[in-house]
Amino acid sequence: MIEQYDDKTIRCPRVGGEVNFRFCRLENNMLPCRFIVGCWRMYLDINKFLQDHYSEEELNRVFTPPKPKVESLVDLIEKAKKAKQQDD
To answer: Which domain holds residue 25?
Structure first.
């Protein structure tokens, strides 16, 4: 059952306060936070939980590092340029 640990709480270094496991499980667009393993490994078998409840594709989306900010900004600029060219 995916909800089995939802009521457990820990202090979240990102949020700066207590959060429950449900928050960590759904924080990333209804997928787990990419830091879930580090935060919860002392409290439950988090790797088994993730393997039991998420597909390989979902886990790859969760644990793929985000693009560097500069790269993301360049991508956004390029998309804006293309959209402007299509409007003209």
So the answer is: 9-87
Confirm whether 4 is domain-assigned. no
pTM higher than 0.70, yes or no?
yes
Cα 83 versus chain centre, distance: 29
In a domain, 27, yes or no: yes
Q: Which two tokens stand for residue 4?
A: 């089995």
Tell me the pLDDT of the chain (88 aa) as tens digits: 999 999 999 999 999 999 999 999 999 999 999 999 999 999 999 999 999 999 999 999 999 987 788 988 898 999 999 988 888 7
Contacts of 5 (CB under 8 A, 6+ apart): 21, 44, 49
The single residue listed with the structure tokens 């060219």 is: 85
**Neighbouring C-alpha atoms within 13 Å toward the C-beta of 55:** 3
Q: Is 47 helix (H, G, I), strand (E, B) or coil?
A: helix
